[in-house]
Amino acid sequence: LPLLSQAIxxxxxxxGNRTLQLKATVLLDAWVDPYTQMAQNTNxxxxxxxxxxxxxxxxxxxYQHNLPAINAAIQEKCGLYMTNIAQLADPxxxxxYDYLNRxxxxxxxxxxxxxxxxxxxxxxxxxxxxxxxxxxYLPAVxxxxxxxxxxxxxxxxxxxxxxxFLGTQAWLNKLSCKAAKDFHQAETEQWKLQPDGAVLGxxxxxxQLSWTKVLNAGHMAVRDQPAIIMLLKQLIGF
Length: 238
Fold this sequence. Notes:
- By secondary structure, the chain is α/β, with parallel strands linked by helices.
- The chain has a single domain, classed as Rossmann fold (3-Layer(aba) Sandwich), CATH 3.40.50.
- Helix content is about 45%, strand content about 10%.
- The chain has helices at about 1-10, 35-40, 40-45, 55-60, 70-80, 95-100, 105-110, 125-130, 140-145, 165-175, 180-185, 220-225, 230-235; strands at about 25-30, 150-155, 190, 200-205, 210-215.
- Strands 1-2-5-4-3 form a five-stranded mixed sheet.
- Helix 1 (about 1-10) runs parallel beside helix 9 and helix 3 (about 40-45) runs antiparallel to helix 4.
- The longest helix is centred in the first third of the chain and has 11 residues, at about 1-10.
- The two termini are about 20 Å apart.
């Protein structure tokens, strides 16, 4: 998403190109600075009682030179569903398939109607990205902020994968531009849909850069907590 956002901004500057009005980028449990994020996996597991302090030390020592394997090792030890530690499996994707296969939706997205969508993952896309899957795109995020693009980061607090909220906090802490400094100084506030409603999560809003941590949500946070859509509507203004 940072790369796509930059491509749009660059394209807008080229003479003769059609201008696309990009208002914001939403990074949802995002893979931004992989080694910084993977280094927090055992901290997340320890803080949630999934492993002991001794097991954390053993895992850190064993996988210090092989961080990409550490999440699977934690999962093997604790036996939890790491995408959302409060669930047993993925939510049902059929409502999403039904929506994306609707004739009006496919027409709006310029997708031929002959081949229905039946899967949520592409081997071809995975293969294309495999060589750089652990590259850091932190500089790309920093550059977008310097270009005044609004960025909203969202984390599901039940996400125990490599994109858990502790890893997200770690890469956010490495940002140093003006927007990031404003974000670092912002206080954490309760996120509610109504002033007297239940707390759904916590927000830290620096204006241009914000971060929302969502209760009862995992890696696919919008599926687990659809109220996130209200945040996006507010951000994008529709």
